[in-house]
Amino acid sequence: MPALVIVAHGSHLNPGSHDPTFTHADTVRAAGAFDEVREAFWKEEPSFREVLRTVESEEVYVVPLFVSEGYFTEEVIPRELRLEDWDVSLWNSDGTDADTATLTAADVDKTIHYCGPVGTHPAMSDVIVQRAESVTQNPDVGEGFGLAVVGHGTNRNENSAKAIEYHADRVREMDRFDEVGALFMDEEPEVDDVTDYFESEDVVVVPLFVADGYHTQEDIPEDMGLTDDYREGYETPTEVEGHRIWYAGAVGTEPLMADVLLERAADAGADVDEALDIVRKRTATPAAGD
Description:
single chain; alpha/beta; Rossmann fold; 2 domains; 6-stranded mixed sheet; 5-stranded mixed sheet; 8 helices; globular
């Protein structure tokens, strides 16, 4: 069977940033779809550059655990993996619909199916909804609630905002929540003013980040007025200007993310149907009180 390599950013400053990568890799590994499952990082070991040398399989599916298409997924990862003949046009994407490109990795003689990032896969919309279910402990959450999908936002990469708006639109089309909006940290509309953009008394806020860190644990809670000092913590939900804010934290910590990793591999041709069934059963949101 082939191998799966999950590539993520990692961090020298936040030791917990790699936790979701290892957790989801363990979930996929336990489902038995691949002979080997490896993790690799830009800022930690094992590195992008070395990871393919640790894999014995001659066929490898590489899935970026990144939120959007951009500098890392289009330039850094293919370069560090030494993917011959890579060109971003092979994805044929407008910024939210990258699929897969099959290439050869130089110096290791392996066939690499290089997949688009998890953050732009359609299944990520379901993870956002499940994140709302998890934070409210209500598998039927929706009626009477607003949902804010939050991203970093940046003028340097327009695809960053595209991913957030794409999933906000998809969740809105589900017609489940009374209101759905895309908010950002560094561009308008800003998450600081979340209560200005929703009429619903209850608003679930889900950051489209892979891991909890400085932005999700410190900046966003303080910016929304959940607390004056993140070190003092806050309640869930927290009353802010006449609204109850249910802050969910990084979407990448939701167990269902393992499903999206497998969906990416499946779209690239991997035989993972049985593993998908196993993962979905293991990561389903329990009913309140279970």
